[in-house]
Amino acid sequence: MSSISTKPYLIRAIHEWCSDHGFTPYLVVSVRDKMQVPMEYVKNNEIVLNISYNATRNLSLSNDFVSFSARFNGVSRDIVIPVGAVVSIFSRENGEGMGFEYEAPPEAALLDDAPAASDHSADKPDDDDDHTPPEPPRPAGRSHLRVVK
């Protein structure tokens, strides 16, 4: 009997915790193979995405895929991410969250079973705030910089 992954449940729980407490949930995704993400924002094979309800449209946190549409530089883009590619979810404001191991999808299931992408550009007016790539969280504690005279 194969065990069912707890990862999608934990992602949904931390997303709900962030939303309930007014925090901004960010998702870190390991970009490998074919993935439906804006490649111009991928750095070191990772992309960090704001998945708050204010930044996304039609957000779906299913057991197999995270999907939504968001604006990048004013252009609506459909995002589809296999849950196995999610390496962490955290709050932008305090850095609290959870990290995960990358789980390679079965070869046949890369994006064959992904939800169909649809054009949601009419769902959001053009004057909405753009979905800009987030800054990585700042480490807590004292700064390691010294003043040199």
TrEMBL record:
GO biological process, alphabetically ordered: positive regulation of protein catabolic process
GO CC annotation terms, alphabetical: cytosol; ribosome
Biased composition (Low complexity): 109-119
Pfam families according to UniProt: SspB
Signal peptide stretch: none
Region (Disordered): 109-149
Residue ranges of the TM segments: none
InterPro entries recorded: SspB, SspB-like_sf
Name assigned to this protein: Stringent starvation protein B
